[in-house]
């Protein structure tokens, strides 16, 4: 796994969260800025949707939701201060599945 900068909109989330779960993270990011947490980075696995890569977040859903909250609910200058280029550092896992077709194995 390695760290890549991924567009916020390319990060897909699982589950649902209450606003009360996200607001403390929003306030923390707004006051301290967004920094990749080296010991606990956002983790995602790469998958292709309609031919383009998307990333399913495995760890860091609340941080991604907090960044989206800031983008969608706060002034643009604040979002740009927090995440200047709209890209999030993500530790990406790429899994290749082996499919058996007859006697041949192909990777997808």
Describe the structure.
Helix content is 31%, strand content 36%. The protein has 108 residues and is an alpha/beta fold. It has a five-stranded mixed β-sheet with strand order 1-5-3-4-2, with helices on one face. The model is unreliable at 96-108 (pLDDT under 50).
Annotation keywords:
single chain; 108 residues; alpha/beta; 5-stranded mixed beta sheet; two-stranded antiparallel sheet; disordered C terminus
Outline the fold blueprint.
Elements (H helix, E strand, L loop, with lengths): L1 E6 L3 E2 L6 H14 L9 E8 L2 E8 L1 H13 L2 H7 L4 E7 L4 E4 L2 E4 L1
Helix pairs in contact: 1-2
Structural class: alpha/beta
In DSSP terms, counting alpha (H) and pi (I) runs of 4 or more, how many helices?
3
* Element order: H for helix, E for strand: EEHEEHHEEE
Helix content: 25-40%
Query: For the report, how would you describe the main beta sheet?
Result: 5 strands, mixed
